Every structure is written in C-alpha cells, then in structure tokens.
C-alpha cells in the first residue's frame, strides 16, 4: 500500500486517543510566536464539479481522494454505518487546505494539489472573513501555487527565512488546517534535510516530526525566528494520520519559483540539455574516479547548450557554476536555479581527468523536455543477423538489422549491437541487461559492430580492468551499466 500521502485536506474528524509523550527539552513556550504568526495563516477551500461512476460495490472512501470530500449537509454525503448507495451523475466536491499570506496586498502561497482543477477558490482568514481568490500561477513540478485576493485593508503577512541555514535538530512550528480544524499549531524538530521523496526531479524537502496531517498542505513551517522555512506538502503515513514523518518543500526551493510566477506568470528554469544518471561505485571504478560522485551524462540533446559547450555522453559533471555535484539528484535543482543566459563553468570528468568547459544556460521549455526524449529518424541499416558471443561480458549480440529493429522496436537512429541472449549467471544479467537492449559504447568507446566491441574489450583486459562501462539503450531510455568482466 502506498504510504506517502499528500496532505491536502479532509472534512471528516476521526476519533483519537491521546498518547503519553516522551519528555524532552524545549523552548519555554511557543505562545508568543503562535499569537504573532497565526493571523497570516489562512484556510483554503475549493469546489469542483465532478462525475461519479455508477456502482453499488465500491466503498465511499475509494471514490474520493484524501483532499476531496463532499460538503457537510450535501445530499451525496457518505451514508451512515458504512452503507453504500448508487451515485449521482454529478456533484460538488470541496477541498480543504492551508496557505499563508506573503504580501499585505493579498498574495497567498499554497500547494498546487490543494487548488488543482478547482472551479472556485476561497480563502478564509483568521477572523472568518471569506475572500474569493484568483489563481496567479502554479508549478506542478514543485507543487506550489500563488493566489491573489482583494481585501479592503492591508493583510497580516509572514516573511521568508533561509532554509539552507536550518539544521537537523532545530525546533520548528507548523500552523494550518488539519482535518478542517483551523488555526492548529504544532511543534517539533527538523528530522532531516534535503530529502528526496521521489515527488519530482527538484525534490528538496525538510523532514519534520511536528504533527502535520491532511489539511496542513500549503501551510507554513516556521523556524524559531518566526520565518517560513518550508511549505508543508506531504506525510509518510501507513494509516493516513500523522506518525511523525512530515515533509515540507524548502523555502529556498519554492521562493524563486513564486517570484517567477508573480513576475512572469510562469516558472523560468535553467536548462542545459542532458540526460543524466547516478554514478555507482562500479561506474566510478570503471571511469577512474576516486569515489562515486557527480552526475553521469547518458545522452546530450541535439542543438542544446551542452552540445555547444563540448559536453558529451559519458562525461561526469562534478561541479556546476561553483557548486559541487555530489549526487546526481543535485544537478537538476542547481541548473534550474541558475539564471537564464548566464555563462557558467562546468567541471567534468573525462578520460581519467578533470576538464572545465564554459556553458551558456538556456531556458527550460516543454519542447526542450520533449527533445531530450526524442530520437530522430535516419535511414535504417542493412540486414545482418550473424550472432556473436561476447564472453567477457556474458551476452550474445547481433549487428543491427531491419528485422531486429522491427522485432525489438529499436529507433531508426540507434546504432550498436543488439543483445539477443544473456548468460543468466553473468554480471550482465544481474545488472538487468535483456534481449533487445542495444550496446553502443564499451568503456567510453563508440561501437557499431562486433569488431569495435572486441577491440574495446581487449583493451580493457590489457589494462586489467575488473569492470567495463557499457552504454545501453532500451525501452526505458539510455543508461550506463558497469559490468564485471568474466574471469
């Protein structure tokens, strides 16, 4: 069962039992901070017309995701005692979440998933004033939305803090609307920083044990200076309730996004035109790196900034614009935050040594993202079907032909050797090589035929290489695989 839950809302209260807490040192109290900050934290309510499927067999709680529940008193509210009923063809759903005011003129931050697909968005202030909100813009990649309300007076605001200065163990305060209970204040500590929870390619979450639940989505996470260091977004919960593992998008990640939305109506991100993958210990060994670090370039987009700078596939990006890249997941975020049209230094590992190249960052657009996945259409190669066993790496291959392209659905511009058999006891099998995969590089040497592969493998053996680095194209994309040589 999937346990990572977006905490958009719930309009149903569950019974709970208070459990004894372990004693621990804490600030004298949080009352002053709560009193000061609460007026700037708002409730977000949205409505949406939806179609319901007609069935008698599915329980109520499977019809509606966590953030969507019928408004109290509506004719389609859940029947008592767990009974089921036929569904009306259309009904109104409401979503309850949280948000916070960052500008006295009425700019409000929340999560995108709180307001996604809404027909109407309402903001409820601390004094129960209800204001209609307009969507200024949103960014699905970091799950952030910016709203605007028109008020008759200046609104209370909160200020941003520097999330990079926050440390594991620091006290934090969360204020929001869990389960529809407005103005709820909870406290805890930062449990971890820079969490990647696989929500997107720009993940940078603060993990906290401050109690956050459904309905806290879009609410602020404060430091003890009363500054917003995160936007509460998700919880890890097998049961659906708080188990002490919550995640807030870091302020330093979302703040530039919101500034772009306010200024341009959209997010402007840097782009360099590469596909990347993680550097494993075996890949590092095959490349002569002292340890697993950096981002391995598996493919370079035609006509992209990386091509113009001379970056090539099999390069490992170690540093970008003065920022070290220790893990592959760090590069997309660093590039995205870089100013568009800025020329930066990029340090790459190539052929056993570091090299610095100049690169001009472009703007990421939809067509650029599609170009990375696109594979063009050059003319097919001639039909050759002779099988050859590459014993050193435990695979049997054929040179690409029209029949193998058709059989394995190989794009027409891909060159190399097609894997047709894999020794089940080989490291290639262990690393996931399968029939239909195409090997087009061996130890950073491009290959188009068996002779090329034999030469590259022979050179690796002469150099006493324990592993060789293969570049493999499959239905899942392009990746590098470090394979142990057969003894």
- Quickly give the CATH architecture of the largest domain: Beta Barrel
Kindly provide the radius of gyration, computed on alpha-carbon positions and rounded to a whole number of angstroms.
Answer: 27 Å
* Counted beta strands: 29
Helical content stands at 10-25%
Mean pLDDT equals 82
The CATH class of the largest domain is Mainly Beta
Count the domains: 3
Structural class: alpha+beta
Largest beta-sheet details: 7 strands, antiparallel
Low-confidence stretches: 9-24, 53-86, 371-384
What structural keywords apply?
Thrombin, subunit H; seven-stranded antiparallel beta sheet; 3 domains; 10 helices; single chain; Pdz3 Domain; alpha+beta; elongated; 29 strands; 487 residues; 16% helix; six-stranded antiparallel barrel
Q: Can you describe this structure?
A:
The chain has 487 residues and is of the alpha+beta class. It has 3 domains: 1-265, Beta Barrel (Thrombin, subunit H), CATH 2.40.10.120; 270-373, Pdz3 Domain, CATH 2.30.42.10; 387-484, Pdz3 Domain (Roll). The chain is 16% helix and 35% strand. The chain has 10 helices and 29 strands. The protein has helices spanning 31-37, 112-115, 251-264, 281-287, 305-309, 330-337, 366-373, 402-408, 427-430, 450-462, and strands at residues 4-6, 41-51, 90-103, 107-110, 120-124, 130-139, 144-149, 159-160, 171-176, 184-195, 205-208, 220-222, 227-236, 246-250, 270-271, 274-278, 295-300, 316-320, 323-324, 343-350, 353-360, 362-363, 387-390, 395-399, 417-422, 438-442, 445-446, 467-474, 477-484. The strands form 5 sheets. Strands 23, 24, 25, 26, 27, 28 and 29 form a 7-stranded antiparallel sheet that branches. Strands 9-10-11-14-13-12 form a 6-stranded antiparallel β-barrel. The longest helix has 14 residues, at 251-264. It starts with a strand and ends with a strand. The model is unreliable at 9-24, 53-86 and 371-384 (pLDDT under 50).
């Amino acid at each position: 069962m999937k346990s990572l839950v977006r905490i958009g809302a719930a309009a149903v209260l569950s019974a709970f039992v208070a459990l004894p807490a372990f004693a621990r040192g804490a600030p004298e109290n949080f009352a002053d901070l709560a009193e000061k900050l609460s007026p700037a934290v708002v409730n977000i309510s949205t409505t949406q017309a939806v179609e319901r499927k007609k069935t008698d067999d599915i329980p109520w709680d499977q019809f509606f995701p966590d953030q969507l529940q019928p408004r109290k008193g509506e004719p389609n509210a859940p029947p008592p005692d767990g009974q089921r009923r036929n569904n009306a063809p259309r009904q109104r759903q409401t979503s309850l979440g949280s948000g916070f005011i960052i500008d006295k003129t009425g700019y409000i931050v929340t999560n995108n998933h709180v307001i996604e697909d809404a027909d109407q968005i309402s903001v409820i202030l601390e004094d129960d004033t209800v204001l209609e909100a307009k969507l200024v813009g949103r960014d699905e990649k970091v799950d952030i939305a910016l709203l605007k309300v028109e008020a008759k007076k200046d609104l209370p605001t909160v200020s941003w803090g520097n999330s990079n200065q926050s440390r594991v163990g620091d006290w934090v305060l969360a204020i929001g609307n869990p389960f529809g209970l407005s103005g709820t204040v909870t406290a805890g500590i930062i449990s971890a920083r820079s969490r990647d929870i696989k929500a997107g390619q720009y993940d940078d979450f603060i993990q906290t044990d401050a109690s956050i639940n459904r309905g806290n989505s879009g609410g602020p996470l404060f430091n003890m200076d009363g500054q917003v260091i995160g936007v509460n977004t998700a919880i890890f919960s097998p049961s659906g309730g708080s188990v002490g593992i919550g995640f807030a998008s870091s302020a330093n990640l979302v703040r530039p996004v919101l500034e772009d939305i306010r200024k341009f109506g959209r997010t402007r991100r840097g782009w360099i035109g590469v596909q990347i993958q993680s550097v494993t210990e075996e890949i590092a060994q095959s490349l002569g790196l002292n340890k697993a670090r950096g981002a391995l370039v598996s493919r370079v987009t035609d006509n992209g900034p990386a091509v113009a700078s001379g970056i090539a596939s099999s390069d490992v990006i170690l540093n970008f614009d003065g920022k070290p890249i220790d893990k592959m997941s760090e590069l997309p975020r660093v590039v995205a935050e870089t100013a568009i049209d800025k020329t930066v230094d990029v340090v790459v590992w190539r052929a056993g040594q570091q090299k610095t190249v100049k690169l001009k960052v472009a703007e990421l657009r939809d067509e650029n993202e599609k170009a990375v996945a696109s594979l063009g259409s050059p003319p097919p190669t001639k039909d050759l079907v002779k099988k050859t066993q590459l014993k050193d790496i435990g695979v049997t291959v054929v040179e690409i032909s029209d029949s193998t392209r058709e059989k394995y659905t190989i794009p027409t511009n891909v060159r190399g050797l097609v894997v047709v058999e894999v020794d089940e006891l080989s490291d290639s099998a262990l690393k996931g090589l399968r029939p239909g995969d195409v090997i087009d590089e061996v130890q950073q040497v491009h290959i188009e035929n068996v002779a090329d592969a034999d030469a590259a493998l022979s050179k690796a053996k002469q150099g006493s290489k324990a592993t060789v680095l293969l570049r493999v194209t499959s239905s899942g994309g392009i990746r590098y695989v470090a394979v142990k040589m057969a003894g």
